[in-house]
Amino acid sequence: MTKSSVSCPVPTEQQPVNEYEQLKSAWLFRDCTAELREYIIRIAWIYALSWLIAGPLSAASFPPHKFIAQFALSAAAGASIGVVLVLVRLYLGWSYVRDRLFSPVIFYEESGWYDGQTWAKPTEILTRDRLIVTYQIQPILRRLQLTFALMFVLYIAGTIVWQII
């Protein structure tokens, strides 16, 4: 990012563009910015790790040697909970930064929770921040929304299969 000629009273770590850069480089959040193939692989890893918890729980309710279909469906549904929790965390984090970047006024704390201030962004900074939202963050949020939609479709499909068996 280029330095602005406008003086900003907001502490560096609370400036929305710096919050964006920090989030973009955080280990879990940077997965959303990866190529589609890498993103899918990382979501699949989260799903596989969730199976370590969901599998034994499902096996306790549906012994695999007697009820293989019920075991597989309930373990798959249980494992998807881990994925959904991670996706919710990702969505909330990116939404928070999007809202801070898009807002024309920024709330910030000078030294603690008791002395909050607001700062109106100059047009130059507001334009830059909104471009970041449009071209960087919105595609990430769309990807997360599509992932949620796919998870929902898979859940419905699993429910239909459960009713059939």
Automatic annotation (TrEMBL):
UniProt xrefs under InterPro entries: CGLD27-like (IPR009631)
Record key words, sorted: Membrane, Transmembrane, Transmembrane helix
Species, as recorded: Dulcicalothrix desertica PCC 7102
Domain of life (superkingdom): Bacteria
Annotated TM spans: 39-62, 68-92, 146-164
Record flagged with keyword Membrane: yes
Protein name per UniProt: DUF1230 domain-containing protein
